[in-house]
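job 3f2a | input accepted
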Amino acid sequence: MRATALRRSVVNASATSGPCSAYQDAAAAASSSAAGENSTDFATARCLEDALLSFNEPDVRAVGVPGGGAISRAADPALYYQALLHNPGELWDPAVLADGTGTIRTRLPDPMIGVAANRSLGLVIAGDDGFAHLRTGFGRAVSPCAFGHGGAGGQVAWADPATGLSFAYLTNGLDAHLLRQGRRMVALSSRAAQCASAV
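job 3f2a | predicted structure (199 res):
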């Protein structure tokens, strides 16, 4: 019954205060009256979904958002990661590229997954601690030197210097189920890495 009341207050909330504030206000009201229930999770998830869906708006696309909202085919990031592996025509300074794709700058714990983040300069490095499958959806079959990044809705792109494989999975759908997203990323990445290892 409380979830229904929360949904009604979200639907009836005024849209003039921004896409997320109505959900946060409804969650705050529900949590003050429903001790013990985690209504903030509902509000956060709904706010995130609205923020992600806003990337479909022409005005948002026109602005361009660094680090989010890219529109491409899966082949494009896969080819980009191939370029990071092979540096065609020395597009990048080799020392800078090696540092950016191979040096872990921080091992601070990622608050979402509770393991070391293994961040380089803008990328995530798989690492050899057994938790690569939790980082950005690398899967269970990449080498410790694989690097890449995950995206919203379960999207992932990475390259593995040990096999020369680059992989990208993009979707035009938004799966709000975080566990299902993670499982899909890990399964697809694992299968791709296994195929590359078998060759």
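job 3f2a | The mean pLDDT is 78.
job 3f2a | closed
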